[in-house]
Specification:
By secondary structure, the protein is α+β, with helices and mostly antiparallel strands. It folds into two domains: 64 residues, no CATH class; 57 residues, Ribosomal protein L10, N-terminal fragment, domain II (Molybdopterin biosynthesis moea protein, domain 2, Alpha-Beta Complex), CATH 3.90.105.20. The chain contains five helices and five strands, in the order H-H-H-E-E-H-E-E-E-H. Strands 2-4-3 form a three-stranded antiparallel sheet. It has a two-stranded antiparallel ribbon with strand order 1-5. Strand 3 and strand 4 form a beta hairpin. The chain is elongated.
Length: 143
């Protein structure tokens, strides 16, 4: 089960704090389970993309299944790149009205058969570099 980080943090804090006195006291008491204060150590680690996996299976058996179901996410502005990505030369499938975008990024292009074609390989991002708005827009346009 994968949830939003704020919901996961809330669930962890509910299970790691003593039961509060008040109108919902019966609900907390009947919820079951012991309070585990060691769970508070997880809260600072719940940043960026997090999934908690609970299973009776050994990690060695679960890892291939989890990695096989991994889905790549698109780049976002401000992220640090963990891959090297270069835009290969060739047709883009875009009409000539969008050539100004490529010129603004200093990407060498030409128009062939009514569409924009990139003439030289263009490095979009390198490992460890920050991804800017223009790179994100370029990657989205190039799909």
């Amino acid at each position: 089960m994968i949830g939003k980080n704020s919901i996961i943090r809330k669930a962890v804090s509910l299970r790691s704090n003593p039961i509060p006195e008040g109108e919902d006291y019966d609900w907390y008491r009947n919820y079951g389970g012991e309070v585990n204060t060691k769970l508070k150590n997880l809260i600072p680690l719940l940043k960026e993309k997090v999934a908690l996996v609970f299973s009776n299976e050994p990690v060695a058996e679960l890892k291939p299944t989890i990695e096989a179901n991994r889905v790549a996410a698109g780049a976002k502005a401000g992220m640090t790149s963990d891959i090297v990505f270069t835009l290969p030369p060739g047709p883009t499938g875009m009409d000539p009205s969008q050539i100004g975008f490529f010129h603004a990024l200093s990407i060498s292009t030409k128009i062939v058969k009514g569409q924009i074609e990139i003439t030289k390989e263009y490095p979009v991002c390198k490992v460890g570099s920050k991804i800017g708005n223009s790179e994100v827009t370029l990657l989205q346009k190039m799909n």
